[in-house]
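Lay summary

Proteins are chains of building blocks that fold into shapes. Our project writes down both the chain and a compact code for its shape. Here are two examples, one after the other.
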Amino acid sequence: MEFNVWLAFAISSLLIALIPGPGVASIIGFAMHSGKRVALASVMGMAVGNALAVTLSLAGAATILATSALAFNILKWAGAFYLIAIGLVAILKNEQALSFDGAASGALPRSAFLTNMLVGVLHPKTILFFVAISAQFIRPDQPYLPQAVILVITFTAVAAASDTAYALTASRAARLFRSEQSIRWIRRAGGGVLVTAGCAIATIQK
């Protein structure tokens, strides 16, 4: 793959990654509710989920999703319900220690990682959209597999960098409010963002 083709794809990936969607909303929710460490774990989970999703898309899953309304809706609703459930738990679970630093402060890093890994994998639009843009950068006269690997790695890395920026910004903003009442409301807001992200996934249409 020529450098100018790769660079064009990297820039396209960055523009896509910067647009806030359900994935970014869930990362911000974790940052506001549980702090930087948990937010960064959710970023790692999203990166793994994105990598799996785009790999599946290049392996043919996009064709199934594009032609099967049932498969599309199963992925969509599974991701939506999961995020909404996590958000409601975050809103209702306010009796834990009010701190952004320990595991008791909210979600555990492992649960944030697994949650966003599922969000990445269960987001059907990621699969369909990646196929739409990657097709513009794969040359049929060159071996397919090396090009596909480069695109998957590039997209995942660029999206992870963008998500990290969102996580650090949101967690830093949340730390500006240190009173117990402020932290309670920040956590509720974080849970609300997760619920909103789930609702956003539920409204996706083919």
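And here is the second example, written the same way.
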Amino acid sequence: MGITLLQGGEELLADRAIAKVLERRKGSVVNSFEASELEIGVITDALAPSLFGEDRTVVIKNLQELIVEVSEELVEALFIPDESLELVFWHKGGVKGKALIDKIKKLDPQIISCEVIKKDSEKAEFIHSEFKRLGRKVTVEAAQALLNALGSDLRELSGAISQLASDVPEGKAIDVDEVEKFQDRKSTRLNSSHGYISYAVFCLKK
């Protein structure tokens, strides 16, 4: 049984980590659950051996929201060996659910940090690593301009980086001018959308 434990509240990083596991387990039967929605018995059914011997991947998000009874049920299932099963747990952090996390860690899971990126220096590092992941170069000034404009939302920041990497011709470093053009295009689209909405509302009122 393989176990991956994601720790931290950064949803973008957690989503990517889960996607990597699912890519590696392509072809397996996937069941994904929100811990807060799990009732007694569901875990046992989900982790039960497949009648057809299929590989299975079970993802449980927000493990800190698991109720005590379901948590106990999960612990019992964890110690039943099953080579066809892969478990992915995401715990956002804090003391809630810590006892369960400690028990999971005794099984030597792969632990992936998904901590929220708060410091500007860490966000700047994230920007550079994202462009590098996409095979693009970005200037320090352009990275800072992006950080100033979108630094509070990592997912929005990632989306902007992907869009810039797509818009700017290959081989050209992404500089401040390109970031400013991107921001102008974004503002134009927003203004156009607002205009369409206002016109639609006006037509409805006529």
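What can we say about the second shape? The longest strand covers residues 85-91.
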